Amino acid sequence: MQFSSDKEAADALHDAYRTLTAEISKVIVGQEEVVRLVLTAVFCQGHCLLVGVPGLAKTLLIQTIANSLDMSFSRVQFTPDLMPSDIVGAETLDKDRNFKFVTGPVFANIVLADEINRTPPKTQAALLEAMQEHAVTVAGRKYDLPRPFFVLATQNPIEQEGTYPLPEAQLDRFMFNITLGYPSYESELQIVKNTTGAVITHLNKILHADEIIAFQQLVRRVPVVDNVVEYAVQLVHKTRPGQPMASQQANQYLEWGAGPRASQHLIVGAKCNAILNGKYSPDIEDVQAVALPILRHRIVRNFKAEAEGITVEQIIRELL
Questions:
Q1: C-alpha neighbours within 13 Å on the C-beta side of residue 198
Q2: Are 75 and 59 spatial neighbours (Cβ–Cβ below 8 Å)?
Q3: Which whole-number Å values give the CA distances from 201 to 21, 64, 102, in the listed order?
Q4: DSSP structural state of residue 278
Q5: Which residues touch 67 (CB under 8 Å, ≥6 apart)?
Q6: Cα(320)–Cα(314) distance, rounded to whole angstroms?
Q7: Is 98 helix (H, G, I), strand (E, B) or coil?
Q8: How far apart, in whole angstroms, are the C-alpha atoms of residue 14 and residue 273?
Q9: CB-CB contact of 129 with 136 (8 Å)
Q10: Dihedral (C-alpha) 250, 285, 259, 51: value to the nearest 10 degrees?
Q11: What three-state secondary structure class fits 221?
């Protein structure tokens, strides 16, 4: 895939995105915002955490996106007895009594980690190392994971008995924390009609792995003016209580603010958002478009906010 200029490549990404969303909408009704954010993460080399109650098609959404991209896909159902070797793979003896490494499900382009908070920290850490390093280490040897590589994890916010919540440092590895709400009445009517008949929908493969890698490199090359970078960094600094640039809301309602990784994700996310909307450089609106899912899991409310019923989303919207 060769383009004569970055402008031509940006137009191609914009067109590919429109084709992708049209393809995904054959199966997924509504949830346009969720699809936009997941695809943004794909083009930004980021990972996503999808939070929603059971039955909102979190798993179906990820499988549908994987089916419309020509890449390898694997799904891991996280359970309390899952071991790190069940994810990354293990060394086994072959018939000649030599050790041979058998790869686990993490060796795929798209890995769906279903109910990531159901498994103990040791297994969560094995996946998170792969997310950060794009490689796994087994018996002292390093094995590189295929590129591109994304982890799309799901979490159920209701049932917290017998779960192992992800610590803040591990949540920070995810670019976006996306919450799924209930579908609207019209959307649910359409879902029921689509899923209770005998028609099977076949999806076309829109993008290949090498095209996605080219688009990821393109997103990195998008120019950004200084005032947009300053806005993103100031926004993150506003979330840090007790710091010189902290906002009144942060000092009043927050225990912890977001780290520098939030500033980086805001800029990369804004670059991608601009291209997906047909622009060649991001402005402040593009930063605001990705701010909520980037900051949502990186700031921690204090007791006062919880007692007064102030949500993280309300605090972020005040800062914007």
A1: 0
A2: yes
A3: 15, 11, 34
A4: T
A5: 73, 203, 205
A6: 10
A7: coil
A8: 10
A9: yes
A10: 90
A11: helix
- Residue 245 CA, distance from chain mean position: 28
Structure tokens at 319: 């800062």
Sole residue written with tokens 């295929």: 146
Q: What is the pLDDT of residues 119-172, one digit of tens each?
A: 888 888 888 888 888 888 877 788 888 888 888 888 877 766 667 878 777 788
Check whether the bond before 223 is cis (ω within 30° of 0): no
What is the chain's alpha carbon radius of gyration, rounded to the nearest angstrom? 21
Sign of CA dihedral 226, 227, 231, 237: positive
Q: What is the pLDDT of residues 57-109, one digit of tens each?
A: 777 788 888 888 888 888 888 888 888 888 888 878 878 888 888 888 888 88
Three-state DSSP class for residue 164: coil
Q: Which two tokens stand for residue 201?
A: 């929908």
Selected residue with higher pLDDT from 89 and 1: 89
Task: Write the pLDDT tens digit of every residue in 237-260.
Answer: 888 888 888 888 888 888 888 888
Q: Which structure tokens are listed for 303?
A: 């007791």
- First-to-last CA distance in the chain? 39
- The residue to which tokens 């499900």 are assigned: 105
Which amino acid belongs to residue 254?
A: L
